[in-house]
Structures
1.
Amino acid sequence: MADGHLESALRMVRQANLDLILRSGASITPCSTGHACLDGDTTPQDNGKTKKEGVSRTYMPDVFGFAPMFVFAGVEGWCIREEFRPGKQHGQKGATAVLRAAIQDLRSQGVELILVRLDSAFDAAENAMAQAEGADFLVKGNPAHVRWDWVKEAEALSGRAWTRTGRNRRETYPNQT
């Protein structure tokens, strides 16, 4: 793999993973809105006590290693796409391409209604590309930086428009009163 074949090997593994999901008849269960959720995030891996090439400080305090990005689909959490990254790479850097590819991978599984869900590390306007790909998206905003008009609109909705779906989770949908 080290002799220039890493990318082709990763492509084969990705395709084998997608083929396994499709051929096994495994379901990609949608969430309560009917969307198949596509959750993306980086996962710091501690390699601080090694001498591996590319080990660097991650966003976690005192953790040196790598910070790969993974994208999981459905309630089951099927791994649809991944990207190996050095620890010092910010989560958003290169994320748009990974997410676009993951949306296309999920579409190859016959899924049409997709909701991309990301945490506040991905609070960037460029992730609106999900709409161009025909997917909906939800990004946890950083309250210190949220300046979107929809915040005022959401606050103005009556209490009846909100449904509590968990201890700290509420949902609302357009055109509810």
2.
Amino acid sequence: MLTKRVIPCLDIKDGRTVKGVNFIKLRDAGDPVELASQYARENADELVFLDISATEQKRKTLAELVLKIASEIDIPFTVGGGIRSVKDVSILLKNGADKVSINSAAFKNPKLINEVSEHFGSQCLVVAIDAKQIDNNWKVHLVGGKVPTKIDLYEWAKEVENRGAGEILFTSMDHDGTKNGYANKALSKLSSEVNIPIIASGGAGNISHFIDTFTIGNADAALAASVFHFGEISIANLKQELKKNQIVVRI
């Protein structure tokens, strides 16, 4: 049985870690370098860094900050935000990222998925998909959730897999920051539609939500932010509870 992963997420805006609800109402959550170092010490399986305003502001990801974080941690490190080319990916990998996450740029230029996968390998590439329910259908949204599209979540997920993505990071905009649990019905369907790992994002509020997303949602990894940033859940306690529920994790 494959090991399930617990992944803290650093949403970065203006060099600080922030967290909001439904992609808005952002509040400060601390220094990203300090948080990253803390999560590595606490036995997080991976760390995700998302420069959430890079695409909207049409600029590159904060490469220098990526370098600082990478020098402080010894766990796999995924970086996203503002990545538009193979060159952008190369810079981030040289600065210490193990994987990159692309979202809006992949949607606008799907060939970018093929190019990144061919240059660096699919194991380096996470495609992030932000979606929300509109008339009971999950629709992809872009630019930090600000731009809706008419494209179906599941169809886009299958395309990114076919183009060479190694993983999908699915964030439910309806669940983001609500602490009411992950979008497990959608996650379960997503995991049955594609053959690459799915990272669940949006909605973690307590330990039972993690248990549910691994058992009901069939997620391969669970990403969370505020419950870790503000000390509501410790990674050590979470992993012990997951283990008690017969969920295989790295302790």
3.
Amino acid sequence: MFTSETTLEVRYYETDLMGIVHHSNYIRYFETARSKALKELGLPINKIEESGIMMPVIHVECDYKIPVKMGEEIKIISTIKELPKVKIRIDSCIFNDKNERVASGSVTLGFIHSDSRKPTRAPEYVVDAFKPFFETI
């Protein structure tokens, strides 16, 4: 299992007229954390795309628990529980500064060839980056 942690401060433009984070921004928080996690593995999105592979979102879900307001600091824990094959699922939990879960969800990405847009398996170098986190003793 691979886990990554990202911390962000909620910005004014992410809030709605009620002064709380607009629901659409939680998906952006998931994306920010996902990008950081892949970068930590040596797999920044631009490197993957330069190799001729794209990773479109094929499923997303989010459960909202507690509102978050401007200026609050949030922590996003991203977890990948399975080696990527033809898709990869990243589970995320967002916590406020009191360590209360404010939202949780997941994003599933597929792998496609950039030129043909046809599905493909995860490139070997992507799978290899994850293997150390899934090897058993």
